[in-house]
Amino acid sequence: MTSPLYGQMMELPLLASSLLSHASRHFGDNEIVSRRIEGDIHRYTYRDCEKRAKQLAQALTALGVEQGERIGTLAWNGYRHLECYYGIAGMGAVCHTINPRLFPDQVAFIIDHADDSYVFFDMTFGPLVEIIAPQCPNVKGWIALGDAACIGEHLSNMSVPVLSYESLIGEHDGAYDWPMLDERQASFLCYTSGTTGNPKGALYSHRSTVLHAYGAALPDAMGASSSDAILPVVPMFHVNAWGIPHAAPLVGAKLVFPGKDLDGRSLYELMETEGVTYSAGVPTVWMSLLTYMKQQNVRFSTLTRTVIGGSACPPAMLRIFEEEYGVQVIHAWGMTEMSPLGTLSRLSFRQKQRSPEEQRHSLEKQGHAIFGVDMKVVGDDGRELPWDGTSFGDLYVRGPWVIDRYFRRHESPLVDGWFPTGDVATIDPDGFMQITDRSKDVIKSGGEWISSIDLENIAVSHPQVAEAACIACLHPKWTERPLIVAVLKPAATVTREELLAHFEGKVAKWWIPDDVVFAQELPHTATGKLQKVRLREQYRDYVLPSATENSV
Ligand code: AMP
After folding, report:
1. Which residue of the set 45, 269, 387, 449 is catalytic?
2. Where's the AMP-binding enzyme C-terminal domain (predicted)?
């Protein structure tokens, strides 16, 4: 007789391939629509997608690719990239998505560090491949995501030999069974965006990928459903597009891929023609979409929700989406090391009983942890801080889709089993977390902390400000004081004094920035985050007017 100590249920491993198999078997006719690099719209079904992913798995096997081997991708959001996700991870190799917006040297560093044996790339990245190939001697083949004719047309002058994806998979019939891997085997590899130092790799497992997809699809997380048409604007080369390529097949949702055209007009047109109900992306993308919509005086006819994350969603953006367009904003926080989802701003039954103003205040925060992530904020003395909504501290997380150690690094980043996120946050009595800063971005004025994000949000809530960053400037009396660097909208006339007056009454007096400077643009990382490090370097010698006043 079996011991009653153990449950008696099947022990089927949690595998990435099972996500696509599920969609293909149970939602086989549901569509995947892509705007292609070739310029046209491509559409097919989950069933077609699985067949081609299996053809790719057969092709990789024929090339001699072994389990655990890393295979790189340099590609936009599209159906062939999705086939790479599942064909590579499904056959037991590791799908390593690379951010093509990084500097070529960094891309080469990442490919070399990951030891990628093959790299699949969209034809737009031919020039990048040409630059980096000599620095990547271990890559056995560069495979362009297109057919031979198209490659002949677009990449004929490349000196690097290029294989055709369509020719490669065309040699196989898709009669293939996904192997029963150990669920702890590696599935996907993503490198951090590397605002400081070299990028570091987060190596996900099949188990973490599937658990994260379950978590992402929960109603109080992204809340995906088979009745949705989801357009991920967040790139598939940035933390697996926040898990959408896994969560969408898990629920059988229609997928709409925008390819390389992420301007307001292209996104808007695709959303309208494909009946998109759900989208996800960083604030900068939404800024250009909202600008386009305002200029054209158009509205969404099907979009009901959008996830905004990657950096703080300005409250002004949240208001425009909700009040002017009737689109629910789900503010999300996470990081590469967390697969990436951690928290989402979804109101509980109890929170929904409160006044609209209180609800809005909660929605502006990064939100509640989803099951699978635990979090705490810790003070300078290493002790956990109370969940009072005001105590700032270093944010720590743990859970089955949180990193244990970085790829090919021995030292563990964990502290007592918790991962230090590098973010500074508060948690309120509702369990809503709010990021106030990156730990190195926090402004310490007279020993007290000032949140640069709060001040940036106030600056961008001014109708004439397009974008703003708040950095610390050295101050003889207070050690540091806040400086706002603002980019104005075209034809704006606001002055320094008017912008400073805009802060009055919105924050404590001592939080009001000491100065404002106007800039043409702000530096951003390859994933659209403000590059505060560069900005601080740029303004390192900036002397605040208050620093020269005899104010002691
Ligand atoms: P990445 O690994 O490139 O996704 O970057 C993760 C970092 O982005 C986090 O540690 C945060 O500093 C920042 N981040 C992500 N989402 C948000 C958000 N909603 N609000 C503020 N910061 C965010």
Report:
1. 449
2. 455-529
Is the predicted pLDDT of residue 328 greater than 50, yes or no? yes
Whose Cα sits closest to atom 10 in ligand 1? 335
Model confidence pTM above 0.85: yes
With contact defined as beta carbons under 8 Å apart, do 372 and 398 qualify? no
39: phi > 0 → left, psi -120 to 50 → alpha, else beta; which? left
**Is 337 a known active-site residue?**
yes
CATH of the domain spanning 443-548, picked from 3.30.300.30, 3.40.1280.10, 3.30.110.40, 3.30.1490.270: 3.30.300.30
Q: Per residue in 92-145, pLDDT tens?
A: 999 999 999 888 988 999 999 999 999 999 999 999 999 999 999 999 999 999
For residues 496 and 464, give the distance between their C-alpha atoms in angstroms, rounded to a whole number: 12
Task: Report CA(190)–ligand 1 centroid distance (Å).
Answer: 15
Catalytic site includes residue 242: no
pLDDT of residue 550: 46
Question: Looking at domain 16-329, what is its CATH homologous superfamily?
Answer: ANL, N-terminal domain (3.40.50.12780)
Nearest CA owner, ligand 1 atom 20:
312
Nearest ligand 1 atom, CA 308: 19
Which stretches of 127-286 are assigned E, i.e. beta strand? 141-144, 162-164, 186-191, 201-205, 229-232, 254-257, 278-281
User: Which residue among 274, 337, 456, 480 is the active-site one?
Assistant: 337
